[in-house]
Design a protein that fits this description.
Layout: E1 29-32, E2 39-40, E3 54-56, E4 60-65, E5 71-77, E6 82-83, E7 91-94, E8 98-104, E9 107-115, E10 119-124, E11 139-142, E12 148-153, E13 160-165, E14 170-174, E15 179-184, E16 191-196, E17 203-207, E18 211-215, E19 222-227, E20 236-239, E21 245-251, E22 257-263, E23 272-277, E24 283-288, E25 293-298, E26 303-309, E27 316-323, E28 328-333, E29 345-353, E30 358-365, E31 381-382, H1 390-395, E32 403-404, H2 431-438, H3 456-467, H4 472-480, H5 506-513, H6 523-540, H7 547-586
Parallel strand pairs: 2-6
Antiparallel strand pairs: 1-30, 2-30, 3-4, 4-5, 5-7, 8-9, 9-10, 10-11, 12-13, 13-14, 14-15, 16-17, 17-18, 18-19, 20-21, 21-22, 22-23, 24-25, 25-26, 26-27, 28-29, 29-30, 31-32
């Protein structure tokens, strides 16, 4: 018989099942820190509703704390771990509880805070942390009518800040001038979240009216609008970088927690909408543009889920989750430039415990055997350099972030000077008085100055010092003092028998010989020549080599400082006398 071999052949059509999806982030795991590396004894605020109440950057971590009156937050250097002192200096300028904190992406010493007192304040934190309580802000932005629950910096433009409040408005600020530039009044209920895309040209918001909006932040125009999640609890949204996708979290009509992926060009139907679980905590998404991973953490939960975003259906893939036994109240997020490249750390949270006074750093790590730099995990990321100024951005210019390489493995920190307050300028505050003085007519004095004639006061002083030549102070004055007895003399006596140190230099003598002092020179010229000679003598002195010489130098410097203080007091008195005379002259005669 003939055997039919067609049943033994492989099927012509391939099976569509591909098994487990391959991803380099499938094995990402969360790693907590030991107790000594946490921040303990931090009285975390109870009044921050759905906001993080925590912010971190490569220098500091800021946490909103509970205080008896008003609102405050503490700022701790990253290396100041362990048990925090109760009397740690705080930022205590708000009249109500602090609800949100955000570090400036271009200045690691500048932080913005929104509070229940309807204001946004900017603070400058010195390197090393606070030594005393900070009460005076750099700027006080007042424009909201009700509490400010959200603050957000522009990702590429310098000095541009967004704020959302319970008055249903989003305000756009120029922080350098402390000026309100735009008011976005498109919401009919409380704003839950706001997020900007990669270049800051689009703004995604969610509110209590269950709608997701895409807004042009410069003009305030509404571009797209649609129903986000049908549940009554808070929903949050985050822009997925420059992909044009928006990731949202919220609740269904049956109170199941959901996540959704939306196209910014059409919000009528989601690209994907899926159920997570049936818990009651509000979920907050955090997006990492470099890895395209979204981390989802819930208030009151003990776990963190993470998903990978793709450009093709189903657009969102579940990776894994970090599970812990302690529920969380909020999270602070470290910028990518502050992550540890050597440990393959792609993300770092600062978890605020819900039941304990602890802030714990949690690192998200991709397991790799090699210790070398991993370019696929760490592409060029956003640097702390602004791409454009606030004026350029408000004028209509749009630029992506300035990128930097993380291959060096060094944490990139910014070191910028203290910015001026918006009401200050670089000119002196007493400029008006100086201009009034300079506008007066100057009367020259042409009388010859007799250098050889000494006043009675100088004669008495020379007499007193000549009688005390053998005292210890006179010996120190000879060695370390800068006394110029005779400006016309070309010889200098800079040596002392007690120390045996030769202080006379040929360069000093040649320099002094070049100073020709005439009888017709003005007093200002003589004073300047005297100061030049004193500076030359100070530079020509040898540095002290023994302990006794160092003590003598210190004593002499103290005496010189006392003399300078007396001279300053005399000058101040003289200035006040001259100002009184000027004021009398300005009064018109009746």
């Amino acid at each position: 018989k003939m055997v039919d071999t067609r049943a033994c052949q492989k099927p012509s059509s391939r099976n569509t099942f591909r098994g487990i999806r391959s991803s380099k982030f499938r094995h990402v795991y969360g790693k907590g820190t030991r107790k000594e590396s946490c921040y303990e004894n931090v009285l975390i605020t109870q009044k921050a509703h759905d906001t993080a109440a925590c912010a971190a950057n490569p220098k500091f971590v800021a946490i909103a704390v509970e205080v008896a009156g008003g609102g405050a937050f503490i700022v701790l250097p990253l290396d100041k771990t362990g048990r925090i002192d109760v009397n740690t200096p705080k930022v205590t300028g708000h009249a109500g509880p602090v609800l949100d904190l955000k570090w400036c992406p271009f200045n690691d010493n500048l932080i913005a805070s929104g509070a229940d007192d309807c204001t946004i304040k900017l603070w400058h934190i010195p390197d090393g942390g606070l030594k005393v309580n900070l009460t005076e802000p750099l700027a006080d932005l007042q424009g909201h009518q009700r509490r400010v629950s959200i603050v957000e910096w522009h990702p590429t433009a310098e000095n541009v800040l967004f704020s959302g409040g319970y008055d249903y408005q989003i305000l756009v600020w120029d922080t350098r001038r402390a000026a309100l530039m735009q008011t976005i009044d498109l919401h009919s209920d409380v704003i839950y979240s706001l997020s900007l895309n990669r270049d800051g040209s689009r703004l995604a918001t969610t509110s209590r009216d269950k709608r997701l909006r895409i807004i042009d932040p410069r003009s305030g125009k509404l571009l797209q609008e649609g129903v986000c999640h049908e549940g009554s609890k808070a929903c949050k949204a985050v822009y997925c970088g420059d992909t044009g996708l928006v990731f949202t979290t919220g609740f269904s009509r049956f109170s199941d927690r959901q996540y959704g992926v939306w196209d910014e060009k059409s919000l009528n139907t989601p690209l994907r909408l899926d159920t997570i679980d049936s818990s009651s905590g509000v979920l907050t998404p955090f997006y990492d543009h470099d890895t395209r991973v979204v981390f989802v953490a819930g208030k009151g939960d003990g776990n963190i889920r993470y998903y990978e975003i793709t450009d093709s259906p189903p657009y969102c893939h579940f990776l894994s989750q970090y599970i812990s036994g302690e529920p969380q109240r909020g999270f602070g997020v470290m910028p990518k430039r502050g992550c540890k490249v050597s440990q393959c750390e792609i993300f770092r949270f600062y978890k605020l415990y819900a039941t304990k006074a602890i802030c714990e750093p949690i690192s998200m790590i991709v397991p790799r055997k090699s210790d070398q730099f991993q370019p696929d995990l760490f592409p060029d990321t956003a640097s702390p350099t602004p791409a454009l100024t606030a004026e350029e951005w408000f004028a209509g210019t749009t630029k992506g972030p300035v990128l930097m390489s993380m291959k060096t493995g060094m944490t990139i920190k910014t070191h910028r000077p203290l910015p001026l307050r918006p009401t200050e300028s670089s000119s002196d505050k007493n400029a008006d008085k100086k201009y009034a003085f300079l506008s007066m007519e100057t009367r020259a004095d042409y009388r010859p100055l007799e250098v050889g004639v000494k006043t009675s006061s100088s004669t008495d002083k020379d007499l007193k010092t000549s009688t005390n030549l053998d005292t210890k102070f006179q010996a120190l004055q000879k060695l370390w003092g800068c006394n110029v007895k005779n400006l016309g003399d070309n010889k200098e006596q800079c040596s002392t028998s007690s120390s045996g140190i030769e202080c006379e230099k040929i360069s000093t003598k040649n320099t002094i010989n070049k100073m020709n002092i005439k009888t017709g020179d003005s007093p200002n010229k003589l004073a300047s020549l005297c100061m030049q000679e004193k500076e030359i003598q100070i530079l020509d002195k040898p540095s002290p080599k023994t302990e006794s010489e160092l003590r003598r130098a210190y004593t002499a410097q103290c005496e010189e400082l006392k003399l300078l203080r007396r001279q300053l007091i005399i000058k101040d008195r003289r200035i006040h006398e001259l100002e009184d005379q000027l004021n009398k002259l300005k009064v018109p005669h009746k």
